[in-house]
Amino acid sequence: MSIFGVDKESAQVRFPPPLVFFGFLLIGRVINDWFGLNPAIPDIVRWVLGGGAILAGLVVIALALLRFRRSGNNPEPWKTDTVFVAEGIYRVTRNPMYLGMALVFFGISVAANCLGGLLMLPLALISIQLFVIRREEAWLSQRFGDTYEDYRRRVRRWI
Question: Tell me: the pLDDT tens digits for 17-34?
């Protein structure tokens, strides 16, 4: 059961993906502090690389949310999709919101000099793949049929 109201006509995602990323980031921070994983990366490199990734991630998320809002869809994966969205940023990646979240996660980890966070990023992505994307893709295939399957063959999942 979800902590949120899950529509019956939805991908049945039970937990908000941003909280999945945030949870893994916190675990990474704890691991980082516990084991003292602080690589010697110059501040300028950390801030430029980390800040750039955060900014890029926020832009990708904003473009995806804007496209969803313009189409009349709700971006929450536990809500019903009324329209199939394949324009804008969705022509480049099937999962721009999760790509953006991963970029923000990476950027925060780098800027904070948090190797533990970087080590947790693959686990966060695997969790999103197994517990969110699989459900979403099965639902979209069921809901939109050949239209979605053609899109899935044409457009990469991440980039």
Answer: 999 999 999 999 999 999
